[in-house]
Amino acid sequence: MADLVLLGIEHREVLKQRLGQATPPRSHEPGRVTAPGTRAEIFHRSGNSPGSDGTLHRLCIQIICKARAELHCNFALRKRKAEVVSADRHPLPATVLTGFLGAGKTTLVREILANPRGQRIGVLVNDFGEINIDAALIVEGSANSVTLSNGCVCCTIQSELVTAVRELIASRPDLDRIVVEASGVSRSLPLADTMISEELEGLVTLDGIFCIVDAAAFPELDYATTELAIDQIVGADLLILNKVDLVSENEQERLRTQLSGLTPHLRIVPCRHGDVPIEVLLGPARGERPATESGGGHDHRSHSHGSHDHVHGPDCGCDGAHPTESHTKDFSSWSWRSDDPLDEKLLRPALKRIGGGLLRAKGVLRVRGESGEERSFEFQQVGKRAQMTAIEAVEMAESAFVAIGLSGQMDGAAFKAALDACRLEKSGN
Ligand SMILES: Nc1nc2c(ncn2[C@@H]2O[C@H](COP(=O)(O)OP(=O)(O)OP(=O)(O)O)[C@@H](O)[C@H]2O)c(=O)[nH]1
């Protein structure tokens, strides 16, 4: 049967608005829509007939969400390019957690607070309802939480989020980071826009948007909720596939294929009860230098850091904090260090190439530009999104870099070789 795509009239209108001059295709016209700065793909799917099971609706939604995501991402990237950070007034990293109702956001926040690795974390919790249950649960583990109730931070109480962030930073200047738990109905991208808005410029820097997906519930979502859930997913830097204990291997694989179809380049981290390595979520604390133990992956079977299941391996001997090592057999970390300056011209493309299987990278880098001038940079990568910001006031004697990836998917040797290839002689010759 021929491939077929049906674009509903309201979707065509949305696409028209989003894409400016480009005309969305009519029903039954699969193909591609392009417009400056954005791209929407019309999906092909064999064997579907319009309206039979909601699949085609889902396809239309994917198109809208992709177009939306690309427009927003372009905007966000433009803004971030202009961002130069000085070390004496370092904006606070902000981690945003999104995900559909009940996906496990509060569980993940509690995981983070159970093992903050020395970071002082301020939490902003948004519950859509009048009573903020999530905040009540989180308060158990943290004195620094702010409640945003009775509305959604991505739309109706956007300005309250800005005010709350400003007030939290003013009252707690010692914080190392803030974590925003969005309500289950928040969309990722308007929330990201708020966090990088002028009102918060210089105060916070958006460190990562993580979308938590309920592995058991996602396939069961109905038409209306699917649109929202997909919107949350495509706006994220990294997907956390939670509740994998509730699905079979086959179901998990099917879901991964489906999610990869939505966002082919998005990294997916499977977990139970939000048990994701803290380094993937938080990166380094303000002013923290990444530790640089050498060597390959680290395997902590039966090892989790959560209130639900705190089981350590027999020879673990850990105190709950592993600066650069992974916490389960699914993750590995690599570190690298050099006291030679790095060639800026070679480094920038090299950093773009280290992507395969990478979940998170962080580093401080001593870089020499074409003019021979040396400067220090902080590098942060979450999923595919990378950010390199100048550290104006601090002279770094050396470079240090840590990468965390999914075991077996990231080539640690290639990663080290790529960075080694950027080394220059100390003398400047
Ligand atoms: N089986 C299982 N249950 C989980 C897992 N993670 C969270 N839960 C449970 O799922 C329920 C919802 O988790 P929450 O963390 O409150 O979800 P949420 O995303 O904060 O929910 P909303 O704030 O309503 O959007 C709770 O009962 C959790 O204990 C998991 O990995 N496996």
Which residues sit in consecutive blocks of at least 5 with pLDDT less than 50?
1-57, 71-89, 284-328
Residue-averaged pLDDT, rounded? 68
Question: Beta-strand level of the residues, as a percent range?
Answer: 15-25%
Q: Kindly name the structural category.
A: alpha/beta
Give the % helix: 25-40%
Bound small molecules, deduplicated: guanosine-5'-triphosphate
Order of helices and strands: HEEHEHEHEHEHEHEHEHEEHEEEEH
Largest sheet: 7 strands, parallel
Molecular shape? globular
Question: Major sheet: order of its strands?
Answer: 5-4-6-3-7-8-9
Helix count equals: 11
Secondary structure tally: strands: 15
Give the N-to-C terminal Cα separation: 65 Å
- Integer-rounded radius of gyration: 22 Å
Question: If you had to describe this structure to a student in words, what would you say it looks like?
Answer:
The protein is of the alpha/beta class and 429 residues long. Helices cover 30% and strands 22% of the residues. The chain contains 11 helices and 15 strands. The protein has helices at 9-19, 55-81, 105-114, 133-139, 158-171, 188-195, 223-234, 249-262, 278-282, 344-353, 412-420, and strands spanning 32-35, 38-41, 92-99, 121-126, 145-148, 177-181, 204-214, 238-242, 267-270, 331-338, 342-343, 358-368, 374-382, 385-390, 399-406. The strands form 3 sheets. The protein has a 7-stranded parallel beta sheet with strand order 5-4-6-3-7-8-9, with helices on both faces. Strands 10, 11, 12, 13, 14 and 15 form a 6-stranded mixed beta sheet that branches. Strand 7, helix 7 (223-234) and strand 8 form a beta-alpha-beta unit. The chain is globular, with a radius of gyration of 22 Å. Residues 1-57, 71-89 and 284-328 have low confidence and may be disordered. Residues 99, 101-107, 134, 184, 242-243, 245-246, 272-274 line the site of guanosine-5'-triphosphate (GTP). Guanosine-5'-triphosphate is lined by residues 99, 101-107, 134, 184, 242-243, 245-246, 272-274.
